[in-house]
UniProtKB/TrEMBL annotation:
Name listed for the protein in its UniProt record: MarR family winged helix-turn-helix transcriptional regulator
SUPFAM superfamilies per the UniProt record, alphabetical: Winged helix' DNA-binding domain
Species assigned in the record: Streptomyces vulcanius
Amino acid sequence: MEYSHNDAELIQQPIGYWSWAAYNAVVTRIRAALAGIGATQPQWWVLAQVARADTVRTRDEVSRLLQNYLGTGSESMEEEMDRTIVLGWITEDSEGRLGITAEGREFYARAAALQDELWAERHAGISDEEYRTTLKVLQRFIHNTGGHAWHQ
């Protein structure tokens, strides 16, 4: 890979631009790939939270966990959760408990395999050490600027 600047120039580059450009490239790629199999990224998040849960989660629990993912508001997340129910991927009982359907489990497996492929694509040529260092540096930027971030 050829970099856009030499090392001396890179240290003068704005982190805001490069973190935005990385975000934009990664999220655009993920969303396009998921759209190709018939899902939005928020629908994937909902499905993954239900499919991976050790114990049954309620709508409120999933909504709280996902309410701030990539700027997705709680109202929008509620709509995406409703859509996963309409699509037949999850069910909701009268007490708000969410369950995965057989169709949802099948779709989850397909989407999870796609996510694994996308992860490998993004990480090509990047060692675990480089990745870990990158995340630690980004977390330090967030801390140094008084920001808050959390990801499950």
